[in-house]
Amino acid sequence: xxxFILIVxxxxxxxxxxxxxxxxxxxxxxRNVAGLEGFSSFEASVFIRFLxxxxxxxxxxxxxxxxxxxxxxxxxxxxxxxxxxxxEIKNSAPLTE
Length: 97
Fold this sequence. Notes:
By secondary structure, the chain is mostly helical. The chain has helices spanning 2-29, 42-92.
């Protein structure tokens, strides 16, 4: 279970960073020589900017989710280690009769 949490965290981090990179790259290549963004129409401008805002919020949510997954993975690993230590202590305790 802990490995699954780690894999989900890594994938969501990669997806979030990749989405931000892709949106910023599209925005960069849309600029002309004067540094202004070129759109074919006003509607396209509004729609594309709205989608980019939603995409960035989704990317930030994915990155936040990945950090929460890493925290959960870390706490799960510590819980497993404590459980193993308790078992080792219990098994190594001398038997008293």
